[in-house]
Amino acid sequence: MSQQSIYGSGPAEDSGDLEQSAGSGQVSASVQGADDILEEIDLVLEENSEAFVRSFVQKGGQ
Amino acid sequence: MSIPDDVRTAPSGPAAPTSAMTGLRTQRVMGIETELGVLHADVSARGTEPTSSIALSHLAVGAYALLAPEEGPRGQRVRWDYGDESPLRDARGFEIQRAAAHPTQLTDEVSDAHLPSVDLDAPLRSPDSPPQGDDAAILDWASQRSIGNAVLRNGARLYVDHAHPEYSSPEFTTAAEGVLWDRAGERIAQRAMEILESIPGAPAIALYKNNTDGKGASYGTHENFLLDRSVPFDRVVAALLPFFASRQILVGAGRLGLGTRGQEPGFQISSRADFFEEQVGLETTLNRPIINTRDEPHSDASRFRRLHVIIGDANLMETSTFLKLGMTSLVLAALEEEQRTGEEILPRIALEDPVRALRDFSHDPSLQATAPAAGGGRLSALQIQRAYAEAIRDRADLRDPETAEVIGTWIELLDLLEEDPRLAGDRIEWVAKLSLLESYRRRGGLEWDDARLRAIDLQLSDLRPERSLFAKLVAAGRVRTRVTPEEVERAVLEPPRSTRAHLRGRAVAAHPTAVASAGWDVLTLVAEDGASARIRLADPRVGSADWCAQHHVDPEAEPAEVVAAFRRALEPATEITP
Questions:
Q1: Fewer Cβ atoms within 10 Å of its own Cβ: the N or the C terminal residue of chain A?
Q2: Per-residue pLDDT tens for B393-431?
Q3: Consecutive H or E run containing B534
Q4: Has this prediction a pTM greater than 0.80?
Q5: Can you tell me the ipTM of this complex?
Q6: Interface probe, candidates B420, B436, B437, B448, chain A, greatest A C-beta count within 10 A
Q7: Would you kindly state where each structural domain of chain B is located, as residue ranges?
């Protein structure tokens, strides 16, 4: 299945992007905060994502 | 004063308050256990093989159990008593012979140098004294002895399960308590990391509350529900298969990557769905079934069954934990009520292939996927959940605040999901995760298999406060919380009042060295003169704060007094001889 538009063919299909689905006040508000949170994440995200993801190896459990 | 041996409690009262007159409620005896991901904090120390997971798990458990000052004298912990645990008893009424079982099923044989005494009259082993010396010396001693089990003052069990540190919450009776003592487990994991980090020479570790490494390994978050044994197990299976295949749309944690190894790019709703291969079965580590038949009630097996739910995701979102416990408990209450009255309450939905449906629903965040129903037609996860929610609402005791809140939230979130999932990002974990990944991806113009997105998926579950991305979402007010940090701190130190965890936890906190060992249904106390008594608890509500008050048992009293009080509480029952 294509996940280009990740929420797929829901009722908000034609507004594939958060910014575009401005019909709801809540969504618009959360978009405003979105950039701030992305910057916060950049600050703490493991520096070498590739190595971090590769090193995350666990034994199976229950 | 010495302690008489073999104190047994008489069964008291029914398993759960019957819903006869009042309607269905969320309350019942429940618990939630979490296996944590464990790694060296230092990425360069990790290597690419999971060889160190077992050693690191022991360090995590040993550090907290032996060195956290709030858990009692340094170097000491209360040992776990396996009680009458028999993992191979099967809810379908038969047993697998031990020799035929896969070794990883034998969880009661996980290496622990200190298998507790289980004999009533046997003298206790000589105490295993920790060395005099600094924290590093104690930790080293603990590692050599593979100390991997402890009973905590909040009534929980902290131990090494397979290759993961596991926190098994104390028993509780409401979904709200469940949230609190689940969060207490996160805080305990943080304390373990803090303690290790403070010890020179000890490896700093990172603990993750998630379910997969994205490379084929999965580890579980299990819910436990006590239910009336009179409900036929076939009926439990029939009602729960469609419910469990679909409840992920409300309580899934979300996961980047499709397939057990995340081999295909994309996002899915549940972190566990791809690891399930059977509808019903006993295994938990391979061929995982949607309905697990492990049946150890840790209580009177003639009255109770314990439903061991292995399909849930590790949730950071408090609403998710609240809902999954509350919703599932209500479905079980409906089953009990159907059995009691002979009426039909739950919808009679059967999916042709529940395992396939579980996966298809998980792989479709648009929520448009449908699964073939056994009688013809197709159903979406939304439709199935709505049918359960409405059937339960119609028979629920909505005057009970928690029941009303669970059902109200259940239906409200279904409405939001139907309208636009993005509206539910403050209370549905997979939506919060997907929204975050989507905006990060869009800002950087990244592909879905970009390592940065995978790193975000993993790091959301990092329990180190300064590293946790989920903590960033909380701090930014983007997700709702239900409990305060102060309440969580208290739940680290105190057990729930509603179950025997009250007795266990209070006794452990008051007399850590006089509690020789404890398990879910046993508590062994040692008096000053060395005499010991093992109290067996056939009903998880025996030992609750109410029960203790009624029976004049003070769990914090001297051990000999606690045992004497139990004997007095037993007397009326022992007078009746058939």
A1: N
A2: 999 999 999 999 999 999 999 999 999 999 999 999 999
A3: strand B532-536
A4: yes
A5: 0.86
A6: B420
A7: 7-23+487-575, 210-481
